[in-house]
């Protein structure tokens, strides 16, 4: 099979499309023919060595959808030819967090394509326990587009910082995969959405997606704009995933009793918090890590019901994966970039 691999950390020049043996399933595993795999910043962290846990040579790719072509001897309920997605957060099923339904924070957890081999290949091995069947009418590209980013946003805004109708939310980077998903989820909850983008083209797309107010952060100070738009009150929820580049101002955008929920640290791992404001205004800072199999099933159901639109910027063949990752690094895309290995 063909796969995009790297043997060492570096820029996109370390990526190579190579011929590798097609995997065979163990007793509790399945083999997928990969029809689509979303590009995620985790792939860049893995390639550049920020995460430092990728087995070499390594195949990245966490947002996988395709067709089952082989099943292990003990696998039940899944069949060859079935259209499926892979829930990206791998889990042991035995620790206290798995037993309580919080499999994304499993003590022995991993992410597909991070510490394990991923979906930038024509075929991929996956635990049968991580397979989620696709609802009728949902294609592989759409499923891959919601495979990690959208379930992360869903988990953040339905489990960690649930919204109420009429509340205000600030969503950072509305053109990103997680940001474009958050816009739709917040609108489904009845919130007023304020989001940030980096150019006018993305501003128009964010408005089309349902955002109520869109701030071009290259032209305006988003903190001052949020104060203006909320009559200095601030927002009920701030949706963060950028890191120190936006962190302090995102916290400052919160209303009294407001909540900031974060799932990422693209621009770095450390920032500052004004502790006095935090307790005096009774604000809450929340971490959120990925999503569960049920989160993926919930989002796919919304896609099938036409209540959630998978936002796909463009698709790429396996041979152009470096180009696609560069576009993500340069913040040029709106929504998801998808690789189609078996097309």
UniProtKB/TrEMBL annotation:
Q: Name one GO molecular function term.
A: oxidoreductase activity
Superkingdom classification of source: Bacteria
The Enoyl reductase (ER) domain covers 10-339
Q: What InterPro entries does the record tag this protein with?
A: ADH-like_C, ADH-like_N, ER, GroES-like_sf, NAD(P)-bd_dom_sf, Zinc-ADH_QOR/CCCR
- The reply on keyword NADP is yes
* Gene3D superfamilies assigned: Medium-chain alcohol dehydrogenases, catalytic domain (3.90.180.10)
Q: Which residues form a coiled coil?
A: none
Signal peptide extent: none
* UniProt keyword ATP-binding present: no
- The name under which this protein is listed is Alcohol dehydrogenase zinc-binding domain protein
């Amino acid at each position: 099979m063909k796969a995009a691999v790297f043997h060492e950390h570096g820029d996109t020049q370390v990526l190579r499309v190579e011929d590798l043996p097609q995997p065979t399933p163990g007793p509790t595993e399945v083999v997928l023919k990969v029809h689509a795999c979303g590009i995620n910043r985790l792939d860049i962290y893995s390639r550049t060595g920020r995460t430092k846990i990728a087995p070499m040579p390594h195949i990245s790719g966490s947002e996988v959808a395709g067709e089952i072509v082989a099943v292990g001897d003990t696998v039940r309920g899944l069949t060859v030819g079935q259209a499926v997605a892979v829930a990206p957060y791998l889990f042991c099923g035995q620790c206290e967090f798995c037993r309580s339904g919080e499999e994304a924070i499993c003590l022995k957890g991993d992410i597909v394509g991070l510490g394990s081999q991923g979906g930038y290949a024509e075929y991929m091995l996956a635990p049968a326990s991580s397979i989620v069947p696709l609802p009728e009418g949902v294609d592989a590209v759409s499923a891959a587009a919601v495979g990690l980013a959208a379930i992360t946003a869903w988990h953040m805004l339905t489990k960690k910082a649930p919204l109420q109708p009429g509340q205000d939310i600030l969503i950072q980077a509305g053109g990103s995969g997680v940001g474009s998903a958050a816009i739709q989820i917040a609108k489904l909850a009845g919130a007023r959405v304020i989001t940030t983008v980096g150019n006018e083209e993305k501003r128009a797309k964010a408005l089309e997606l349902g955002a109520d107010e869109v701030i071009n952060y290259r032209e305006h100070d988003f903190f001052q704009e949020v104060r203006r738009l909320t009559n200095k009150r601030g927002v009920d929820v701030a949706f963060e995933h950028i890191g120190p580049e936006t962190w302090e101002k995102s916290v400052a955008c919160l209303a009294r009793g407001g909540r900031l929920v974060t799932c990422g640290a693209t621009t770095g791992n450390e920032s500052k918090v004004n502790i006095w404001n935090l307790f005096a205004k009774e604000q809450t800072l929340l971490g959120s890590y990925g999503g569960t199999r049920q989160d993926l099933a919930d989002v796919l159901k919304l896609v099938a019901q036409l209540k959630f639109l998978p936002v796909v910027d463009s698709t790429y063949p396996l041979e152009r994966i470096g180009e696609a990752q560069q576009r993500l690094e340069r913040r040029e895309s709106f929504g998801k970039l998808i690789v189609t290995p078996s097309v």
